[in-house]
Amino acid sequence: MKKGLLIVLSGPSGVGKGTVRKLVFEDESLNLAYSISMTTRSPRNGEEDGKDYFFVSKEYFEKAIENNELLEHARFVGNYYGTPKAYVEKLREEGKNVFLEIEVEGAKQVLSQYEEDDGVLSIFLLPPSLEELEKRIRGRRSEPEDIIQERLGKAKREMGLKDNYQYNLVNDSIESASEKIKNIIRSKIFARKDS
Description:
Order of helices and strands: EHEEEHEEHEHEHHEH
CATH class: Alpha Beta
Structural class: alpha/beta
Number of helices: 7
Number of domains: 1
CATH topology: Rossmann fold
CATH architecture: 3-Layer(aba) Sandwich
Shape: globular
Largest sheet: 5 strands, parallel
Strand content: 15-25%
């Protein structure tokens, strides 16, 4: 059995990564497994531990950093976020195509640990415009103004890093963006079967 792909989907906060990912995952033929991130932030309404994130203490997270147990980690708005390495590699060894939906800084760390021929696929999701991104972030109604401004400033900087990814896609429609991502994954799977 061939080791699964590592698919990295990144882009600025509020661009719709989670919504697009959910549509991509409806296609069972892609044999996808979602890589659940670990975080020290509190769960938002409706989020479940072990499904949306692994919610852990700051002490637990810092021990994981110390022991080099994370593919990537970052600190944002006072909280840690990261991807457990052993969890991802176990899924890939089982032949699953592991899907990481992560922030740009984390994606940079992950991509620096792999070569393209290691079965890694990187996709950057862009908003149609910065105005649209701001509308989406404000539409969440979950954060105070200073956090919104911080997210928007960070988004502008992150969009400058889009060329570090194999593919750039504009999320002008979640249906269209998810179809394009499915096609990219399919072509990568078939290309690896032939090699």
